[in-house]
Write a structure and sequence with these properties.
By secondary structure, the chain is an alpha+beta fold. Helix content is 22%, strand content 40%. A hairpin with a 4-residue loop joins strand 12 and strand 13. The structure holds zinc ion. Zinc ion (ZN) binds next to loops.
């Protein structure tokens, strides 16, 4: 349920006002205070009529504003290793999670070291959990709202689930061992190399060139999109390179329009993909050349 519907339902339940009367009051409120958002106007109308809107339980898709005291029932999709960070007060730790429900995915940032230890010890990818008393904040880094977990947040395990069953349909990245074999893997994009996003070839001699061919100049240059990335399946990672049509498909993961913005968006680690690729040996290690790619939507099963 959208935040707005929920708020209006609360007013309907707790007052004798009809929906039309509420709408009328919201309209008047906005006329009186044009700077108010509709959301704020609804809250103000509620307060005028003795209804204090305190909502606790949210769905991921509702988290589009700064909320305090939010609860969320979700599944842990990805648990990243905790990282040391330097804050003004000295060294600290931060841990990121990606959680999801049937409405979407969201990043969770954990700042409290006790909470980090608790998660490291007791919670795993696949677990269904209840996050109680967290807050959401807009992150300029990810350009999205994130859930923050602090010392006062409670984490409750609802159900432990093995993720192995899902992974069996795919090859684990650590099991990519044979050159020229086709593998299907699933994982999160954790890095994109943004330096050489195009390869330039002279189509007369077929050689890769920097700017132009020594022999044929710029007469027959062809430019091919090439994106190198690192995919992580939670246990290990591999380099995956996308060319041409597959690279276009890869870029379509992001709704940004500009190439740089797309790369930046995708490199942030929120995208889970399924890749079919051929293992190629490069500098003594195997990496995948993608033949196909698709986004993997995280849906929490209803059972
Ligand atoms: Zn040439």
């Amino acid at each position: 349920m959208e935040v707005e519907d929920w708020s209006i339902n609360q007013i309907l339940e707790k007052t004798k006002l009809t929906r039309e009367q509420i709408e009328e009051k919201i309209k008047k409120k906005i006329e009186e205070f044009p700077a108010l958002t509709r959301e704020a106007a609804i809250r103000s109308v509620a307060a005028d009529n003795g209804v204090i809107l305190i909502r606790r339980d949210y769905k991921v898709s509702d988290i589009k504003e700064e909320l305090s005291h939010l609860n969320l029932r979700c599944r842990i999709i990805r648990k990243f290793e905790a990282k040391e960070v330097n804050l003004r007060g000295g060294k600290s730790k931060v841990m990121n999670l990606i959680v999801g429900d049937e409405t979407g995915q969201i990043r969770v940032v954990v700042w409290d070291t006790n909470k980090i230890s608790e998660i490291e010890k007791d919670l795993n990818e696949g677990d269904e959990i209840l996050i109680i008393n967290a807050y959401s904040k807009f992150s300029n880094f990810s350009n999205n709202f994130e859930i923050n977990i602090g010392a006062n947040t409670l984490l409750k395990l609802i159900e432990h689930r093995e993720t192995g069953a899902v992974l069996d349909k795919y090859t684990r990245i650590s099991q990519i061992t044979e050159e020229n074999k086709v593998y299907r893997v699933r994982g999160f994009i954790t890095r994109i190399f943004t330096n050489n996003t195009f390869i330039i070839k002279c189509s007369i001699c077929g050689k890769r060139v920097d700017e132009k061919c020594d022999i044929h100049g710029d007469k027959a240059l062809s430019k091919t999109l090439m994106i190198s990335s690192v995919i992580d399946d939670g246990l290990s990672s591999t380099k995956v390179t996308f060319f041409d049509r597959v690279a276009d498909k890869f870029l379509s993961l992001s709704k940004e329009t500009d190439l740089r913005q797309k790369l930046n968006d995708i490199s942030f680690g929120l995208y889970q993909i399924e890749v079919e690729g051929v293992a190629r040996s490069f500098n003594g290690s195997l990496s995948l050349t993608a033949k196909d790619v698709k986004a993997v939507d995280y849906i929490v099963s209803a059972d």
